[in-house]
């Protein structure tokens, strides 16, 4: 055996590292096996080619009020917060390509019927996400058996209101409302303190702050708190086998075997398909893994000489019914001359866009940016220094997708409340941002899931110790 420990943690993302830290602080021996050559999972900070700071391929945003675990790490590691820019107008593009400039946190000026429908859908969905009955039987299964699109239609959504709801799911998941369980999207909204807050970039919203040093600085700092040798990089797991009630053997793709009493798995749902389990996972978990999926979600980051959009009175936030861009955000760090727009290309438009050549992809994005921010293609091209593109859909350890996996209808209904909250099977506990009822899909959710999973495992270990 390469190692014997109380617990093996598979995956050195935020939730895996947090679980390992809590176990270590409770004087339990732990080994962390990470497939990549780095820690952080889907936190991946990249340096600009010109050296002017960093941009994020993965998770980028947090806040300092209701995401306290992440904020505490930022303070502990001395990281520099950057307030998300919301000063200026938002560019809103309809399905025909007509652009409106609207004040931040207000609706575009559609017809009165459409605006009333958008508000009604928003408010009804907000109310449903705050209603405990939505997540209890029989309502839970009823909501899981329909798509979010069907929920919107049943609640009187006009075509424009449905397009607005499409911006929501594409921005959050890279999926269309017809792909997502209504229950699953309600759970996401509930965990983010409602659909309004979920989409908010101001104070208390989940997109309020970024980090000048990059979010990957957090897991790097967490890893340094663990004893040397705890984390084994380049150690992708091939199989997890139970040899006895209190003995699991975890084997890497290189044939190295590690033994432990318990296993915590901190990888995305679709990535479970890369591991062989003996015995097989129980039926509900097998069904979940077979069904859960990522949307199509690409960050196309444009690096610029100046924040030209601000000169036109825009804050850099935009949304589009037309595509290929679903939305954009200003991800500049002015003090470094690091000016950038992160463009989110998602879902159906993204699949068409990805079939284009690199040159044609860039041209499509630049032309849309010129239209959105009313400066024209030539101005955007003149300001452009370069682009960088996320590639999560090619990463098997991420489960071939981003930002987090979500189930279609008919998968998570039943089982009372919080069916995804730290599923357990024998001595194996699942953690991760998709396995939490709080801040699902966000860094804070990953940390909270890791803490909860560690607490469950520690309780089991203590009980076993008492019975020995």
TrEMBL record:
Cofactor: FAD
Single annotated GO MF: monoamine oxidase activity
Enzyme class: oxidoreductase
Binding annotation for substrate: 344
Manganese recorded as keyword: no
InterPro entries per record: Amino_oxidase, FAD/NAD-bd_sf, Flavin_amine_oxidase, Flavin_MAO
Stretches assigned to the Amine oxidase domain: 14-458
EC number(s) per entry: 1.4.3.-
Catalyzed reactions: a secondary aliphatic amine + O2 + H2O = a primary amine + an aldehyde + H2O2
Residues that bind FAD: 15, 34-35, 237, 434
Family affiliation: Belongs to the flavin monoamine oxidase family.
Protein known as: Amine oxidase
Protein source organism: Exophiala oligosperma
């Amino acid at each position: 055996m390469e190692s014997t420990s109380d617990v093996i943690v598979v995956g050195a993302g935020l939730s895996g590292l947090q679980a390992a830290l809590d176990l270590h602080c409770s004087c339990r021996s732990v080994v962390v096996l990470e497939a990549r050559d780095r820690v952080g999972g889907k936190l991946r900070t990249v340096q600009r080619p010109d050296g002017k700071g960093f941009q994020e391929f993965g998770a980028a945003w947090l806040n300092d009020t209701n995401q306290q675990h992440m904020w505490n790490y930022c303070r502990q590691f001395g990281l520099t917060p950057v307030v998300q820019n919301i000063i200026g107008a938002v560019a809103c593009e309809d399905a025909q390509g007509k652009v409106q400039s609207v004040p931040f946190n207000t609706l575009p000026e559609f017809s009165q019927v459409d605006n009333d429908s958008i508000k009604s859908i928003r408010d009804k969905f907000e109310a449903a996400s705050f209603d405990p009955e939505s997540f209890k039987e029989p309502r839970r299964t009823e909501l899981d058996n329909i798509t979010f699109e069907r929920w919107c239609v049943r609640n009187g959504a006009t075509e424009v209101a449905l397009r607005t709801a499409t911006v929501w799911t594409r921005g959050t998941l890279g999926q269309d409302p017809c792909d997502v369980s209504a229950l699953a999207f309600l759970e996401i909204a509930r965990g983010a303190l409602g659909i309004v807050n979920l989409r908010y970039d101001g104070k208390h919203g989940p997109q309020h702050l970024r980090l000048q040093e990059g979010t990957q600085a957090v897991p790097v700092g967490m890893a340094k708190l663990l004893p040397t040798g705890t984390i084994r990089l380049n150690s992708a797991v091939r199989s997890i086998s139970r040899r006895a009630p209190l003995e699991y053997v975890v084997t890497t793709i290189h044939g190295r075997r590690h033994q432990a009493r318990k296993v915590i798995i901190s990888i995305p749902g679709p990535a479970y398909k890369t591991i062989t389990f003996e015995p097989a996972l129980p039926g509900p978990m097998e069904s979940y893994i077979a069904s859960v999926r990522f949307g199509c979600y690409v960050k196309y980051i444009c690096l610029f000489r100046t924040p030209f959009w601000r000169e036109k009175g825009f804050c850099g936030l935009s949304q589009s019914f037309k595509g290929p861009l679903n939305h954009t955000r200003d991800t500049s760090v002015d003090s470094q001359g690091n000016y950038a727009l992160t463009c989110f290309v998602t879902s159906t438009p993204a699949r068409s866009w990805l079939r284009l050549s690199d040159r044609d992809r860039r041209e499509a994005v630049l032309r849309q940016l010129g239209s959105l921010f009313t400066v024209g293609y030539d101005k955007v091209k003149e300001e452009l220094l370069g682009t960088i593109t996320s590639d999560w859909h090619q990463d098997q350890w991420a489960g071939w997708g981003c930002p987090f996996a979500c189930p279609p209808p008919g998968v998570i209904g039943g089982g009372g409340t919080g069916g995804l909250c730290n599923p357990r099977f024998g001595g194996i506990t699942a953690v991760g941002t998709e396995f939490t009822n709080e801040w699902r899909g966000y860094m804070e959710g990953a940390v909270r899931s890791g803490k909860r999973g560690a607490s469950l495992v520690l309780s089991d270990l203590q009980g076993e110790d008492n019975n020995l």
